[in-house]
Amino acid sequence: MSFSTRRGSTLSLISYNSRRIERKMATTDSTREQTNDGPNDQLSPLANQLSFPGKLPAEIIQHIASYLSATDLVCLGATCRTLADHASDDLLWANLVNKRLPTPIRTPGAFGSFRRLYLAYHPYWFIPQHKIWFADNENTGMLIIARYDDRRGVIEGHTVVAERGTPQFQMWTSHPEVIIQSFEPNVHLSLGGPILSLRDPDPSSRTAPIQIYYSTEERHMSMASDAQNIYNSLSVCAEFSLRVPWVDPSLLWPPPTIPANAHTVRALRIPPPAILNHMSELSETLFRLRRWATPELMLPQVCVTFSTLDPVLYTPTTEKPYQGIWVGDYSTHGCEFLLVLQKETTVTAHGDENESQVTDAQDEVEQDNQEDIGQRGPLQAVKLTGDHNVPRGQLSFVAEDIGPRGLIGVGMEEPFVGARIVRCRGHVAGLGFRDDTYIDSQLILISPDHMAHYWKEMGHVSYYRRVDIDALLHSS
Length: 476
Fold this sequence. Notes:
Blueprint: H1 3-26, H2 58-65, H3 70-77, H4 81-87, H5 90-98, H6 114-120, H7 126-130, E1 132-135, E2 142-149, E3 154-163, E4 169-170, E5 179-181, E6 186-189, E7 196-199, E8 219-221, E9 230-238, E10 252-253, E11 264-265, E12 282-293, E13 302-308, H8 311-314, E14 324-329, E15 335-342, H9 355-367, E16 379-383, E17 395-399, E18 407-410, E19 420-430, E20 434-447, E21 450-455, E22 460-466, H10 469-473
Parallel strand pairs: 5-22
Antiparallel strand pairs: 1-2, 1-13, 2-3, 3-6, 3-7, 4-5, 8-9, 9-12, 10-11, 12-13, 14-15, 14-22, 15-16, 16-17, 17-19, 18-19, 19-20, 20-21, 21-22
């Protein structure tokens, strides 16, 4: 049973028993003794007016409260004084904060309590929780890492960038005409300041700004560009139903090439579409950043939509060793980031007559060498960042099967000795993504962290390296 189901059942039982007790108490003598309960000699509620949850042992109340969301915890605290004391327990709020962070923190830092810290950045805690976000900037896109800095008490998002470094020319003995340049990229967070910045104006205050004024529309981000009269704001998004038949997929984010449970309409007009009417509609996998300037600067407004990636998509496994976020060498376009998806191979059957075929296929899979368990099925590379030829969100290359059906051979010459070489198709296009097409190529699987792509028609080999996400999260 899930936490939410267990919580709902428990609260329903409490509500039912509470009504039974209140009806029973209503039949007894209405006169009750009032007791002194508080430092200011304030009278506690009459005994027959105490809710049933308030009469439970403290340990049970705390256990129930530990399953509640922040919103439900506030509602619980508004019930009565006893439950208000339980709902304000800072251990509960510390748990709510740490559920949203990749690495738990022990103290609220500059804030007086974890409750005050949580309220400072509600409802934006999902941004550091999901860490990796990619944007719909036209053609180029953008990849950022979002983190909570407990030393400074701020949430920031920095652009992920990569420098190619000084390449060294390599020789492929059997293909001396092919141009090969080494690729040892330096992947790091941009030092030019955050693209996203949330900070509390006064952490020492007992009251968070959200307790004074709150809007579901936008939150201004105080940044260095304010001094140049260039301003930035953050807004949340609502999910968009994909059941609507008339929507052009190019108007939605994330793109169809990247699996996602939630989509939204891209902000292609200014102001962006106001599709969030209530906080219950908020999607925790999407948000927008807007930048504008004072009229005298004559700068256009820019609104960018961000989506996160499900960790399942970029976490390598034994069965999917190549899955993850990679950086590739795209020659004059520079370094670009890709999401490599290793699809599952499935065997389908129709009717009882094919059941034996399915069983035989499963037996063959079980007999495969354990070392080759990840060397099968289709592999796709989707651009998280792109260029003016093949933009972000498009496929960069596709290998229909990296298993036996697509295997060309194993490299016998430097620099690809021992590498698995499979059939592939590379995606090319003219400027503005015109006349796009796929051309035959070869994918060279050097290791789970290192690949090469032989563009046969171009006589060129591009290298790809896996991006170490954990290193970026912990970089200073």
